[in-house]
TrEMBL record, chain A:
This is ABC transporter ATP-binding protein. Keywords: ATP-binding, Nucleotide-binding, Transport. The keyword Nucleotide-binding applies. PROSITE patterns: ABC_TRANSPORTER_1 (PS00211), ABC_TRANSPORTER_2 (PS50893). The lineage of its organism: Bacteria, Bacillati, Bacillota, Bacilli, Bacillales. Residues 3-230 form the ABC transporter domain. It comes from the Bacteria. It comes from Halobacillus campisalis. CDD domains: ABC_putative_ATPase. SMART domains: AAA.
UniProtKB/TrEMBL annotation, chain B:
Pfam families: ABC2_membrane_3 (PF12698). The keyword Acetylation does not apply. The chain crosses the membrane at residues 21-42, 188-212, 233-257, 277-304, 316-335, 341-359, 371-393. Residues 19-390 form the ABC-2 type transporter transmembrane domain. It comes from the Bacteria. This is ABC transporter permease.
Length: 299, 420
């Protein structure tokens, strides 16, 4: 049940939203889509779901395209949230689940469990318009997963939520993965992707700039971070060969080095200069990679 | 297919349960009930004013035979009770003032020896009653005059018998129905036209609103990832159609019962041609109703899919509203001139034909092939519009922004295209 995209392109008139995107999204894992606003994440999702037709390329899931005959296997949380404002939560969720091929009885049973899990069991008979935005989002999340999809597509699932609810939703996502759901989600929050995904893809102007396993990406990036805290002035470190970035943080500093061997040179330079409190060699963060690859255009 | 019916059910249920549906239906039913029973209601009020329901009339005359003759003539009329020469002329006048009698008539001999009548009456005597009185008096006068002129009974009867008058219609070529038939169908055709017009306006905008609501609440994206836009569009159309069916069967049911109860001789419903409803006209009415609905509903759903805010929906469907208004005006004109060329031509144009072809079928005897041709055009137009509509709908539902112009049809069309 691997989802494969091969040379997928989407043009709107003269504007190319997605440009020759080739991806393989493995089964039963969490795949992260990163990108600034307008990078083509939502367009890619819509093409995967068959809501819009790609201008070129192929999308296959389990050796064929995703059509309406498979909609009971797919869950989708669109970026633009929306439910029927005047409908009660239960009626709404049951209706949407039935459209995904679930029967009402099962849907009611499932939704009770989900509401319990999200600690909002009393919302069952409330109208959606009476709920807060965050809680509406929880309901929307339930609508995407209620029918136990095999493939779950979440477009910016954590945006606009408070930290407590973000944790709650993250937990739910991890649980779903462990239960065997393949999950694709997009975000422009690096830490979420870093925390959840094994595989990821960074989109920039419709093109994949980085793509693969999180560990491999970090390793192949080459550059490392060095964090030093010492009782003497560290400014001289920025002129050392192999140091690409220097950031002073009060009594400590953060350096980006071309490869991990440079760190040893730094250590030698520091030796004997004074009291060293911390010396740390770190993997680059996804944020560093993103900024490096996408550049300053990222907000 | 299963999902289609789930959607139809949802559309139907959510509308039926809504307060606005309940209220409009109830108000309409009350209105229909009132209209069909209007005669009974008016009479009811009349009865209350007149108390017992019969008028008591005193007939007074020095000539005993005149008084008896008038008494007999008046007694044969409904709703009158007559008393002859119980009182004299002055007393009669007084008793009308006191209210013992509703009115009094005094007959005196005129200069030529013929009767001259004076009526004393209270405030609330009706015009119809005065007319009736005058007719009876005329009869009495003729009888008296004839007697004096020594005309025999047979001659008198021959004079009084009305001339036999019959209209024979010979205009076979124009295909018009006889004027009697035409008058009978006109009322029915008018009612049907109005219902068609009303329902297209009502349910058309309901569909557009329904689609626009789902779009503006952004629930649409979930929906189209579950159910294809085409079946979604037709589920909406079918759901609202069922709603219309329910509403109309209620209205027609109440209307029919009302007509049945009140279709006695001379009732206004009868004169309007609604007394005995022709089955063939009703069957054509239903056919054109369904086709007309489908055409306009498809158009409404298409247009509704283009707006992103509910407030814009009404503006967006205005072209549809104009079309149906034009069609309605043409058909009103056609009621008076069903066989004009203009009407014949427009009865083949799809957006007008549901109203105008129906009008022609109802008012004229037109050959079957003309009807089939018109229905054929109509069905073809529905299919083409549905195909375009489905494409626009598919693109339109994903399109957000300030979209209130028809230019967006093109944009939506492109969005749903495979290759650009």
């Amino acid at each position: 049940m691997t989802l494969k995209l091969h040379n997928v392109t989407k043009k709107f008139g003269s504007f190319t939203a997605v440009d020759h995107l080739s991806l393989e999204i493995p089964e039963k894992q969490i795949f992260g889509f990163l990108g600034a606003n307008g990078a083509g994440k939502t367009t890619t999702f819509r093409m995967i779901l068959g809501l819009i037709q790609q201008s070129g390329g192929d999308i296959t899931w389990n050796e064929s395209g995703i059509g309406y005959d498979k909609s009971h296997l797919i869950g989708y949380l669109p970026e633009e949230r929306g439910l029927y404002p005047k409908m009660k939560v239960q009626d709404q969720l049951v209706y949407l689940a039935r459209l995904r091929g679930m029967n009402s009885k099962e849907a009611i049973h499932e939704l009770e469990q989900w509401l319990e899990k999200f600690k909002v069991p009393d919302y069952k008979s409330k109208k959606v318009e009476d709920l807060s935005k965050g809680n509406q989002q929880k309901i929307q999340f339930i609508s995407a997963v209620l029918h136990k999809p095999k493939l779950l597509i979440l477009d910016e699932p954590f945006s606009g939520l408070d930290p407590v609810n973000v944790e709650m939703l993250k937990e739910a996502v991890v649980e779903l993965k462990e239960a065997g759901t393949s999950i694709v989600f997009s975000s422009h929050r690096m830490e979420h992707v870093e925390e959840l995904c094994e595989h990821l893809c960074i989109l920039h102007h419709g093109k994949p700039v980085v793509h693969g396993k999180l560990k491999d990406i970090k390793r192949s990036f080459g550059k490392k971070n060095v964090r030093v805290r010492a009782d003497f002035d560290l400014a001289f470190l920025k002129d050392l060969p192999g140091v690409t970035k220097y950031k002073s943080l009060g009594d400590s500093c953060e350096l980006q080095v071309e490869n991990e061997h440079i760190s040893q040179t730094i250590l030698t330079e520091l030796h004997g200069k004074g009291f060293i409190r911390t010396f740390d060699l770190e993997e680059p963060s996804l944020n560093d990679i993103f900024i490096e690859k996408v550049g300053d255009s990222y907000e | 297919m299963n999902k289609f019916f789930i959607m139809v059910g949802q559309t139907f249920k959510s509308r039926v349960k809504s307060k606005s549906f309940f209220i409009t239906t109830l108000v309409t039913l009350a209105l229909i009930f009132l209209i069909t029973n209007i005669q009974t209601i008016i009479e009811m009020f009349d009865d209350e004013e007149e108390g017992a329901g019969t008028s008591e009339i005193a007939v007074v005359s020095d000539e005993e035979s005149w008084a008896i003759l008038l008494g007999e003539t008046l007694s044969s009329q409904e709703g009158l009770s007559v008393e002859v020469n119980e009182v004299n002329s002055d007393e009669a006048r007084e008793s009308v003032e006191e209210g013992t009698y509703d009115s009094a008539i005094s007959l005196d001999s005129g200069e030529d020896g013929l009767p001259v009548a004076t009526q004393y009456t209270g405030e609330d005597s009706s015009l119809a009653e005065a007319e009736m009185m005058q007719q009876s008096l005329q009869q009495v006068k003729v009888a008296i005059a004839a007697e004096e002129a020594e005309v025999d009974e047979a001659t008198l009867q021959a004079i009084n018998t009305p001339i036999p008058f019959e209209t024979v219609f010979v205009g076979e070529e124009s295909g018009a129905k006889s004027s009697e038939e035409m008058a009978q169908t006109r009322g029915l055709v008018y009612v049907m036209l109005f219902l068609l017009y009303l329902s297209v306006m009502l349910y058309g905008s309901m569909i557009a609103t329904e689609v626009a609501t789902e779009k503006s609440s952004r629930v649409m994206e979930i929906l189209i990832s579950s159910v294809s836009p085409v079946s979604q569009m037709f589920a909406k159309i079918t759901g609202i159609a069922l709603l219309g069916l329910l509403q109309f069967s209620l209205i027609l049911g109440v209307g029919y019962i009302g007509v049945q109860q009140n279709s006695g001789e001379g009732s206004f419903l009868n004169e309007f041609g609604l007394g005995d409803i022709q089955l063939s006209v009703i069957a054509y009415g239903i056919l054109f109703f369904i086709l007309g609905y489908l055409l306009y509903a498809t158009l409404a759903a298409t247009l509704g899919s283009l707006v992103s805010r509910l407030e814009d929906a009404q503006q967006m469907i205005s072209p549809m509203v104009y079309l149906i208004i034009i069609a309605f005006f043409i058909s009103v004109f056609g009621l008076n001139a069903p066989d004009s060329t203009f009407i014949t031509v427009t009865s083949y144009i799809p957006f007008f034909s549901p109203l105008i072809m129906f009008l022609r079928v109802g008012m004229l005897d037109i050959p079957l092939w003309e009807v089939i041709l018109s229905v054929g055009f109509l069905v073809a137009a529905i299919v083409v519009l549905a195909m375009i509509g489905a494409r626009v709908y598919k693109g339109g539902v994903l399109m957000y922004g300030k979209s209130t112009s028809l230019k967006d049809v093109k944009r939506a069309f492109q969005l749903s295209k495979k290759e650009n």
